[in-house]
Amino acid sequence: MTIIARKTNWRFANVAVTGINARTENPGPGMAVARCIRECPEFRGRVIGLGYDALDAGLYARELCAASFLIPYPSLGEKALLARILQIHEQMGLDVIIPCLDAEIPNFNRIKPALAKLGIKMLIPSRDQFNLRAKDHLSAFCKSIDVNVPESKIVSDPSFFDTCEADGWQYPLVVKGIFYDAGIAYSPYDAKTIFGRLVSQWGYPALVQKMVYGDEFDLTAVGDGKGNLLAPLMMRKRALTDKGKAWAGVTVLDQGIEEMANKIVKALMWCGPLEVEVMKTDDGKIYLIEINPRFPSWIYLSHAAGRNLPVTVLKLLDNECNFDFPPAKTGKFFIRHAQELIVELIDFESVLITGSLAEIPERWIQEGSGYAEHV
Amino acid sequence: MEDATVSSPCRPERLQKLAVSDTGFVFDPQTGQSFTLNSTGLMSLNLLKKGTTVENTAACLAREYGVSVEVASSSLEAFLVQFGRYL
Amino acid sequence: MQNMFNKAIWEPPFIQPHKIGEINKFGRRAAKDNICDTVFGVPVKLLVEKYGSPVFVTSEKQIRENVRRVKRAFERRYGNVIHGWSYKTNYTSAICNIMHQEGSWAEVVSEFEYEKARLLGVPGERIIFNGPNKSKAILERAIAEGARIHVDHLEELHTIESIAIARGSVVPVTLRLNFDTGYTEPWSRFGFNIESGQAYLAAKLVALSPHLKLTGLHSHIGTFILEPRAYAEQVRIMCKFMRELEGNENIQIESLDIGGGFPSNNALKGVYLPPEQSIPAISDYVNAVTSALMEGTQYRRESNRPLPQLIFESGRAMVDDAQMLLTSVVGTKRLADGRRACVLDGGANLLFTSYWYNHLIKLTSEIDGPVEETVLYGPLCMNIDVVRHSIHLPPLKHGDILAVHCVGAYNNTQWMQFIEYRPNVVLVHEDGESSIIRKAEDLSVMTQQDCLPSHLQIPFLDIGRNGRINKIASVGQIEAVS
Fold first, then answer.
1. φ and ψ at A172, to 5 degrees?
2. From residue B52, how far is each of B47, C36, C122, C184, C333 by CA, in Å?
3. What pLDDT score does C4 carry?
4. Given B34, B40, B78, which is nearest C11 (Cβ)?
5. Digit-coded pLDDT (tens) for C218-239
6. Between A345, A363, A370, which is nearest B18 by CB?
7. Closest CA–CA distance from residue C18 to any residue of chain B (Å)
8. List of chain A residues whose C-beta atoms are within 8 Å of the C-beta of residue B22
9. Is the distance from CB of C332 to CB of C341 less than 8 angstroms?
10. What is the mean predicted confidence (pLDDT) over A305-326?
11. How close does chain C come to B70, measured CA to CA in Å?
C-alpha cells in the first residue's frame, strides 16, 4: 500500500486536532482550536478530532469535527502513535496535526520526520525547547534569562512535606504534577494527599512551588522558530474554578508581560503555539508561573479578539503568513459554560468498537436485533 | 435443563430487551450499561434471544467452533452465570 | 464493516462490561512488531529446547559493547577514568569476567563479593570495597591485598586505623559522602554527610592519624536517576569539598568516585512517558559529569597539579539490556473483573525487578486472536507474584513462550529462592554459540546446606530407612527403631 503525500492549500487542508477532551472543570484546548479553525471564513477544509477516551466530547461534536478517531495514550510511545496516525492518514488524508496536550509533544516530535515524508505538517517545539520550559527545568531557565519565577523544588519523597517548614517552605504551597495539574496545600496532610494524587496520575517526581499572590494573566502566541513571538494575545483571569482554571477572563494589553514572553520565545527560539502563565503582584512585579507548549483552552478568545491563532499556525505551515497581525481587541470577555452534547448510541458504539467516528455504519443495524430502535 | 430461559439466571424478557450489535456491542436499556461480547458470546446471546434452548445453543457452538458438546455447554453455563451478575 | 472475529478460534463465551475512562482500544501494541522469535541472534525455540524454560539468556556482545561505549565517552572527555563493575548488579562469574576483560575493576560491597572477586582472580588493587558492613577480618585481608577501601562510618574508620597500627603502615582511604543535590532524595544513610559537618570531621580525623591517608572521595546519589543535571551538581559539590579539604589540610585527593545510578532502557513504574522519551542518552550523563568535573578541577590545572582519577560504578546501564528471560505459559484464566490472566513458569521469584519496572514483554511466535488486556502471574503461591499487572496480548495458551526484555540488572542477584529451583543462565558468545554460565538448581543444591540432627534423621518414626513400617509402642522406642 502506498500513501501519497497530499499537496493542498491550508484553506482546503485536513487538520487533525488533539486534546478534544472537555471535562467541564478542566477542558482540553482541542475543541476550542477546532472552533477557531472552523469559524475562519476562508477555511473550507475539514477538522479531524483525535481523542484518547470514548468520553472525549470532541469525538462526537459533528459540527466541529468531520471525523474523529481514538489514538493511543502518550504513555504507549511513538511507535503505537505513528501506526495509528498512518491508519487515519490512509483513511482521511491528513495535512496538518495540531497537538494540544503537553504529554503528547515528545511523541509527536519523534514521529515528526516520518509524518513530514507523508506531507503531514506540524508546528511544534523541539525536544530541547520542550524540555527547557518543563516544570522541573523552569527555574534554571528563568534565572538564565533574568525572568522572575517563584522558588520551586523537585519532590520525589512526600516526607519532604513534614519537615519543609523548617527549611523555609511555609504553607500554603503549590504542589504540581510533572505534566499537569496542581493543588494548593495548607498543611503537610494536604500536601501529601495532593502529591499522592499527582504522582499516581502523572508519575514521579512532583514539584513544590512557593505561593506568589497577585493577579493572574495568561499570554498565548505562536513562536515561528526563529525567535519571533507572533500575534500575542493577553488575558486577565477574572474568575477561577476550584482547580485554579479560569472560567471567565478578559483580553488585555500589558507591555511587561509581552516583553517577558518575547524574552522567552527569543531565548528558546520557540517553535509552535505556547501559553505563558504569569502572576502580577501588587507592586507590579511579574512572575512566570508556567510555559505550556500548546494553545490554552481559552484559545477561542483569539478568534474573538481578531487574532485567530490556530489559523495563524495553518498559514505559517503554508508559508502564507504575512506577519501583519491586526491589533488584538481588548475588553473581549469569555465566560466558560457547560453544555450537554447529545451522543447517539450508534456513535458511542462506533467509537468503542472501531475507535473512530467517520460514517454511520448502517450495516450494523439488523432487523429484529432489538438494536434499530436505539439508533 | 428444559428451557434455556427457565434454568438460566437470565430471564427471557431481560435478554429480549438487550440491544445487540453485530460488532459484539451490547447495550442494556434498563441499566444504561454497555458491554462487549467475544465471538462465541455474541453467537450464544443471539441464539438465546431467538429462543433457542441452552442445549441447542451449546450444540451450535460446538459445531461452529469444533469443540465437544460438553465443553461448549459447560462454557455456556459459566457464561450465563457471568451474564446474570450484570443483569 | 468486516467481521472482526476469527470464527475458527474457540474461546469460551464471555461478556465484558465497559468501564468509562478505560476505553481505548488503541492502547494496544500492533502484534507484528511485538514478536521476537530470536534473542541475541539465537532462535527462541532452540534455546528453550536446549536449556529448558524458564531460562535467562545473556549476550556477551551486548555487554562488551555497552561497557566500551560508556567508557569511551568518559575517556574522550576526561581521560583518566576507571569503571568499577558493580558486582551486586549481576555477579554471575562469567559476566564479571567479561567486564574485567574489558578493563573494569570490581566494585564490591560485602565480604562475599570481595571474596568472589578474589576467587575470580581480580587483584586487590583493582577492587573498590564499598558497603556499610565490613568485618575486621575482611578489612585486614583487603588492606593487606591493597584494595581501595571506601569508608562508610566512623567505627569503620577506627577499625581501619587499628589495623594500620598493627601493620605499622599507612592505609589510604576514600570517604563516602552524602549530600543534597536538589534533584534526588539524598541517601543520607550511607557515608558521611557534608551539610552537617560529619564529612569534614571524618576527613579531619583521617588527616590527624599518622596511619591513615585520605586519597579519595566517593558518593552515590541514588539509582535510576533520570536527571543528568543531578550528576553535574554531585560533581560540583564533591569538587568544592575536595578543594576545601585541600586548602585546609595537607591532603591531595587522587580519585573522585561518582558511584552509579545511570538508568537502563527500562520502563520504571510511576514514570508517565515511555523509556525512549523519559530516559536521557548516556552521553547526556557523561557530558554533565565531565563538564562539571573540568570546571571543578580548574584550580588544579591552574596550579599545574594532576587531575583526580574519575571512577564510575555503573551497573544497570551496562548489563540490563544484555539479558532476557524466556518464560512459558503454564495456564490461563479469566479473572472476576473480566480480564485475561496467564500463569507463567517464571515470576517475581526470578524477576525481582518486576516490582519496579513494567518490563517490555514480547511474543516469540505469531498468535492469532483479539488482543486484550492481560495480567501475567508468576508460579508462586503468593499474591505479590505479578510479572505485569496490565499488558495487551492475544489469547495465549499453554506452552507459548514470552521474552521479557532488559532483565540483566539485579535479577541474577536479587532473585529469591522460594519454592522453585532457579533456572539456567545462558550466555550467547560473541561467535553465536551458547553455553550455560550458571546451572539450574536441583534438589542437591537446595539441600546441601541443611543439617539433620541425629534424632531428626527420619520424618516418620514408624517408617524405617528401608521404607518398611515398624511397630513402635511409644516415642521412647525411637532409638530402637533408628
1. -75, 150
2. 5, 45, 77, 65, 28
3. 47
4. B40
5. 999 998 998 999 999 999 999 9
6. A370
7. 5
8. 363-364, 366, 369
9. yes
10. 91
11. 12
> How close C373 gets to chain A, by Cα (Å)?
14
Paired residues of C43 in beta bridges: C38
C 419-458 near A (Cβ less than 8 A):
none
Q: What is the ipTM of this complex?
A: 0.88
Does the beta-carbon distance from C29 to A76 stay under 8 Å?
Answer: yes
Q: Name the C residues in 322-361 with CB < 8 Å from any A CB.
A: none
Q: What is the pLDDT of residue A6?
A: 58
Are C13 and B76 spatial neighbours (Cβ–Cβ below 8 Å)?
A: yes
Cell reading at B44: 450464544
Taking the Cβ of residue A362 and every Cβ of chain B, the question of whether any pair is shorter than 8 Å is answered with: no
**Domains of chain A from N-terminus onward:** 10-122 (3.40.50.20), 152-209 (3.30.1490), 213-335 (3.30.470.20)
Q: Which residues of C touch A343 (CB under 8 A)?
A: none
Strands C425-428 and C55-59: parallel
Under CATH, what is the fold of the domain C130-314?
A: TIM Barrel (3.20.20)
Chain A nearest C-alpha distance from B21 (Å): 6
The residues facing C343 across adjacent strands are C331, C377
Q: Determine the longest span between alpha carbons in chain B, in angstroms.
A: 36
Q: Which among B39, B76, B78 has CB closest to C7?
A: B39
Cα of B5 to nearest chain C Cα, Å: 17
Calculate the CA A128 to chain-centre distance: 18
Neighbours of A313 (CB within 10 A): 28
Rounded CA-CA distance B49/A97 in Å is 45
Q: Return the bridge partners of C324, or none.
A: C57
Domain ranges of chain C: 31-58+321-443, 130-314
pLDDT class for A25, splitting at 50, 70, 90? Answer: confident
Lookup: cell for C388: 505485569
pLDDT tens digits, A104-158: 999 999 999 999 999 999 999 999 999 999 888 899 999 999 999 999 988 888 8
Residue whose cell numbers read 496536550: A101
B30 touches chain A (CB under 8 A): no
Closest A-chain CA to C33: A79
In this structure, the number of other CB atoms found within 10 A of the CB of residue B51 comes to: 13
A352 neighbourhood in chain C, CB within 8 Å:
18, 23, 25
- Angle between helical axes of B39-49 and B69-86 (0-180°, round to 10): 80
Which grid coordinates are listed for C398? 499453554
Cβ–Cβ contact B65 with A under 8 A: no
Beta strand pairing call for A152-155 and A206-210: antiparallel
Query: For chains A and C, what is the number of CB pairs under 8 angstroms?
Result: 81
At the second CATH level, the architecture of C31-58+321-443 is Beta Barrel (2.40)
Q: A221 with A232: CB under 8 angstroms?
A: yes
- pTM comes to 0.84
Strands C38-39 and C42-43: antiparallel
What residues in B contact A374, CB-CB < 8 Å? 19, 27, 29
- Work out the pLDDT band at C481, boundaries 50, 70, 90: very low
Q: How far is Cα A319 from Cα A10, in angstroms, rounded to an integer?
A: 10
Q: How far apart (Å, rounded) are the C-alpha atoms in residues A198 and A190?
A: 12
CA distance C382 to chain B (A): 26
The CB-side HSE value for C339 (13 A sphere, CA atoms) comes to 16
Which residues from B are below 8 Å from C17, CB to CB? Answer: 33-35, 86
